[in-house]
Amino acid sequence: MADTSAKHLGKLVETLRVPAGAKVSLAKDFDPAFKAEWLSKQESEPQLAASVELLTEYQERLAAQDRHGLLVVLQGIDAAGKDGTIRHVMSGVNPQGVNVHSFKVPSAKELSHDFLWRYAKSLPARGQIGIFNRSHYEEVLVVRVHPELLERERLPSGATTGKEIWQRRYREINDWERYLVDNGIAVVKLFLNISAEEQRRRFLARIDLARKNWKFSAADAYERASWEAYQDAFSEMLSHTSTQWAPWHVIPANHKWFAHIAVGAVLVQALMEIDPQYPVLCAAEQDALQQVRAELEAQAPESTGA
After folding, report:
1. DSSP state, residue 92
2. CA distance linking residue 256 with residue 194, whole number of Å
């Protein structure tokens, strides 16, 4: 990646980051149609390829070092482009080192545990990258927009009244993520931000294109009726859970190609900050390696000539 591009991408990542403690209004503070003036759509393919190449290298080093992991939290309203982002940005990474978990409606067993339990079970191991396609933040988003869902969680009496439950969950999520970071699991949180009009266009495309019909359901249209409630919930989530140890990045996602560039830049920077290194063998291990090399060379067949 050229130095100028790297400098621009670094500034872009800073621009997208939600400062810890900032009061966020998603509609006022972030433009879902934003595009960097220094990058065109035509230039985006080689730029994304460069990011993928770096991700591939750093993922290999992460696996070799086996001391850190990376958890990527991907949130966004329906049709924001979560699946496509994973497919494009992670296209060159060794699939053995990446686990993607898509969290649907919780099962009866999952509802019998605390709200973080099912997410904790799916955390990446050291040396791995884990991607949560939707995540523990659903517990302060969809559950907040539809508070009747709290009844299924069978919380203690009085624990579901008032705003206290959301403040408590923000605190519990922040504490949990701090625990993960302290134990070597870096947390990168990406919110894919699209406009209501862009969502409408994408829904129509899913209806009009037969190959996309499977991606659309009546429930998607039902949730669209709660657009403003979700925007408020997103703003509260960003305001209360963007921390110094696990900040949110709001990704302008109306233009898919630019969203892929932005996500790639954030992930590359996160891995650069971890800076995993290949293990260096000690002197005894080096000696053993050279002994094996000598034995293998001795086994070479003799040349029979021309």
Report:
1. T
2. 10
Cα dihedral value 105, 110, 116, 119, nearest 10:
-70
Q: Find how far residue 200's CA is from the centre of its chain.
A: 24
Query: For residue 207, how far is the Cα from the chain centroid?
Result: 27
258: CB partners within 8 A, 6+ apart: 34, 35, 36, 39, 41, 44, 252
Residue of 89, 49, 23, 119 whose CA lies nearest to 253: 89
Tokens matching residue 100: 């993607």
Q: How far is CA 20 from CA 175, 207, 238, 240, in A?
A: 14, 40, 9, 8
Cα–Cα dist 100/130, whole Å: 6
Q: What is the pLDDT along the chain (306 residues), one digit of tens a residue?
A: 445 467 788 899 999 999 999 999 999 999 999 998 888 898 899 999 999 999 999 999 999 999 999 999 999 999 999 999 999 999 888 889 999 999 999 999 999 999 999 999 999 999 999 999 999 999 999 999 999 999 899 888 777 667 799 999 999 999 999 999 999 999 999 999 999 999 999 999 999 988 888 877 878 888 999 999 999 999 999 999 999 999 999 999 999 999 999 999 999 999 999 999 999 989 999 999 999 999 999 998 876 555
